[in-house]
Amino acid sequence: MEEEAEPGVSSRTERKAMEKAKILQRESDRKLVRLVGRVLKKPEAERSEEEAAVLLLHGETAEELCKRQVRRNVLKRKQEEVYDDADELKSKVKQLAAAVEQAKHLVVYTGAGISTAASIPDYRGPNGVWTQLQKGRTISSSDLSKAEPTLTHMCIRMLHKENLVRHVVSQNCDGLHLRSGLPRHALSELHGNMFIEVCTSCSPVREYVRLFDVTERTSLHRHGTGRRCSHCGGELSDTIVHFGERGTLEQPLNWKGASEAAEKADVILCLGSSLKVLKKYPCLWCMNRPGSKRPKLYIVNLQWTPKDDLAVLKIHGKCDDVMSLLMEALNIQIPVFDRAKDPIFSLATALRQEEVNSHTREVIAPLDGQEVCFPGSGEPAEEATAVLGGWFGRGQGKGRKKKKKAA
């Protein structure tokens, strides 16, 4: 009698054979793609008969590779920075000035591009945070405590003072809008503020404004700063909203203010934002209205944005250059940032004695000879070593260190 096959042996053999066949097929497909790719790189006139036959035989592969190349070219064009020439820039800014003057309820949306003049990197520019990370490069350190509001920040503050801008919706976490003197009720910091930590155990939520970046120990889904509330003892959290998170804090996010402003807006001016994140918030664009009844959109950005086709006007220029020309066209003087009048000094809460060494972030220092008095305290904050702001480059991972494999 023939011996019966041991149960399970046949199925295991078949499974292994199938896995091996898949591996061989993938390798064969890769070789085919490389071969067709090499042929496609050659000008048509220089291809041999054999190479032409390869393309004819593997038409689907060749078509797919051509589509991939088209997509790469489109993406590359979208990432390129484009500049309007001087005359065109002036002409466009005049159109923008007219829109600003005629607007009944102008709302400004700002992104990282308005802070690059303060040596804070943007995200998707040639040297942006995401661009560098995608290329496998490290992000250069930025001493954020030494950053000050840019010309654009000061222009926006002045336009609000002149009642030409009603509300500012910002994606930035750098706190520079607040430090420019823009009133908090006119500001929505949708992704938080790096100088603010809160106690969510208190009701209402208790806020602590600091003179240093509070995000040293925080990252995606990990918001505890290590300090505690002086009233209830609960752990304080940062206010940063990372990719993959939904912000629930009333302040400094102020979603209510942003939504109400968008609902009333007849003109929206986007400054230095790629709009790749903002476009995902329908309430900011009045998407529930017919297209003809939505706010008129004006965009200032060097790169392509997903809202370009909907804009009344797209200006390719640096934010400071555009805003300088705009203020000139409006005949409004641009205020200079005065560090002695930085609102953060009057808003800040001093650390308790036991918290003095709870951070290693650089402290925003007053001018020489200027003393900083905190509400209820006459003690200046301690200075620390400058390091990279904790919210840069986060959101892609949870910030946890990978465990080393056992040897």
Protein described:
This protein is of the alpha/beta class and 407 residues long. It has 2 domains: 21-79, no CATH class; 86-355, TPP-binding domain (Rossmann fold), CATH 3.40.50. The chain is 32% helix and 10% strand. The chain has helices spanning 9-41, 49-57, 59-79, 86-102, 129-134, 151-161, 176-180, 255-264, 319-330, 343-347; strands spanning 106-110, 167-170, 187-189, 196-199, 206-209, 224-228, 235-238, 267-271, 296-300, 313-315. The strands form 2 sheets. It has a 6-stranded parallel beta sheet with strand order 3-2-1-8-9-10, sandwiched between helices. The protein has a 4-stranded antiparallel beta sheet with strand order 5-4-7-6, with no helix packed on it. Helix 1 (9-41) packs across helix 3. It is globular, with a radius of gyration of 28 Å.
**CATH hierarchy: architecture of the largest domain:** 3-Layer(aba) Sandwich
User: N-to-C terminal Cα separation, in Å?
Assistant: 51 Å
Question: How many structural units, i.e. domains?
Answer: 2
Strand numbers in spatial order across the main sheet: 3-2-1-8-9-10
Q: Which regions are unreliable across 5 or more consecutive residues at pLDDT < 50?
A: 122-135, 373-407
H and E string: HHHHEHHEHEEEEEHEEEHH
CATH class of the largest domain: Alpha Beta
Based on secondary structure, the structural category is alpha/beta
Strand content: 5-15%
Number of helices: 10
Radius of gyration, in Å, reads 28 Å
Question: Which of globular, elongated, flat, extended, rod-shaped describes the shape?
Answer: globular
Protein name: NAD-dependent protein deacetylase sirtuin-7
Cofactor: Zn(2+)
Family: Belongs to the sirtuin family. Class IV subfamily.
Pfam families: SIR2 (PF02146)
